[in-house]
Batch of 2 targets.
Target 1
Amino acid sequence: MHKLLNTPLLRKESYIGGEWWRGESTLAVHCPATGETIETVWDFDREAATAAVRSAELALPMWRDKTAKERAHILRTWHDEIIRHTEELALILTAEQGKPLAEARAEILYGASYIEWFAEEAKRIYGDVIAPPNNDRRVLVLKQPVGVVAAITPWNFPSAMLARKLAPALAAGCTFVCKPAAETPLSALALAVLAEKAGVPAGVFNVVVSSRAREVGEVFTGDAAVRKLSFTGSTPVGKLLAAQCAQTVKKVSLELGGNAPFIVFDDADIDRAVAGAIASKYRNAGQTCICTNRILVQDAVYDKFIEKYCARVAELKIGSGFEDGVDLGPMITADAVGKVARLVGEACAAGGRILIGGKRGNGNGNFYLPTVLEVAAESPICREEIFGPVSPVIRFVNDQEAVSIANDTPYGLAAYMYSRDLGRIWRVAEQLEYGMVGINESGISNEMAPFGGVKESGIGREGSKYGLDDYLETKYLCMGIS
């Protein structure tokens, strides 16, 4: 941990209007692997959040009026600074969030890829000239930035989720205010250090650290100067924020809960399916919104899959993210471990059977052992997002049953399927009620693809050419020329 103390990227002040703010109360940031305090940061309230919004509001005309090429250059410089400081950022990320250092490095690069992508897309915001109804006029369409954007980001990917939101906002000409999760504020503050170094003007990017989520949320949703809110987190909180935003009719982007099915058909490459399920389920100790929540395996290959899958799960190494060869780090808090233990207990009470794991880790830290459960489709653990290293496995008979089980949820973020039958792939993929479907592939996230869900998993898309849409307003000009 001593390495962290030597980096100028580790800050305890919030970043508002181009200045580093100190407050009156503090918030301790703990390492989930050991419980020790990494840093004590200043803890702010609604007044600081309001000041951040005012700073973004004041900076908006200047940033909006820069050319797309000027904004692109600054974003690209920021990207290069992130790449240059990947190791320091990864160390901070692992310390406060717990994921293995290799995963932390991958997250930093993943987040940086969005800044690079939207630096390029900033120069590709196009309007239209439309054929007029009469020759005495011309019809034009412009795309303009929506204005001040507020974002509330989660603790599971504290660097990448922020980058994925701020990059399109700044590329479009919007200014930005962020409240990172209280558990993991250090990654956001580190990005602010590099933003300042890269020449992002004062007020364009603001970070307010606060344990008072409700207070700050009320500022973001209630202030008329904020024209868009972007939130990644739970569905109940997302619904509340959306309702509050309705009072000022803000645009919203919501990336909410998931209940991802991972379907293994009888013609699948079983080894490939096992590898995909391991990567999807146990990345970040199962604490990802798109990770596999239920594994559905067709009857003919069920026993073969279970044997291979459990063997691979048994090989996973659990420990501090700083240890060599660790596959699973800790969960974020003791409460998160308690939730997973409760879900496993409920599943067993309903007739589920533990094949491997099923208990907390030994010693200090928020650890839960990688677990595999045999359950029925109606098991309680299949009804909510686990957000932990537990694999409920369900047996199914045919395609229709698999689709029915997969869609039997209010959520619709990500789904996965493994098959070598092209006809089956098309039929099932089109029937799955999800915003993203991985086919013989579980690594579906990248900056070039539209990330987002349907049903109660959210609104809007992040990344890809579609990622700018939510940060732009469409303005129609009717020009009389007679």
Target 2
Amino acid sequence: MSLKIKKVLVSQPKPATGKSPYYEIAKKYDLQIDFKPFIKIEPISLREFRRQKINIQDYTAIVFTAKIAIDHYFRLCRELRFQIPESLKYFCLSETIAVYLQKYIVYRKRKIFFSELATLEDLIIAICKYDKENFLIPVSNVHGNGLSSLLNKKNIKCSTAVMYRTVSNDFNQDEKFDYDLLLFFAPAGINSLLKNFPDFKRNDVAIGAFGSATAQAVEQAGLRLAIEAPTPEAPSMVTALENYIKKLRKIL
């Protein structure tokens, strides 16, 4: 098992500008960082959404576990011509996700809550303080039922609504794949990795996972989970990556 990290793959689209913090880390630690999404997000149509028989207006609070969920929630509200009430409460898995709401709402004028520890357990504690609310959780078509199951056990009224589709992004068969570290942001990315590279079982390749569900998918696939985020020490994958590189270089 190699501890040296020289080549990193971030399973996200390449940043539009050269100001990404990933580039700063690459320069600072002499790394090669490439970007290649293992999955792609597709919107579900209004017709598909309506088949779920979800009435958005029935919900008094909404739970976001990812920025992409925010984008598609507001997209569907716009397509439904639903005027989002100012009284709606927002619960977010992390502060980073909560701040992203500024893209759509006046942040300081809304009731927004987020997990200080960036964990589902901590988020549920915040949600349970408002147990009279009716919660809606926007998810992808490949979502797990972890959060809704936990809330149901606590007698919190909640529903999940599929608002976008996560599909595998296929690689070319002859594409070179010689990375020391892979960073993933959704369980579907792990599924795509195994689909594209069915023989991928190398323990010398470190895996970084954003979110507990992604980390669980890494472990279930028998891969080497080296980085987990978000955490109080590393609220973003960028911070987690830098902390990991620093730790390795101290060891070496």
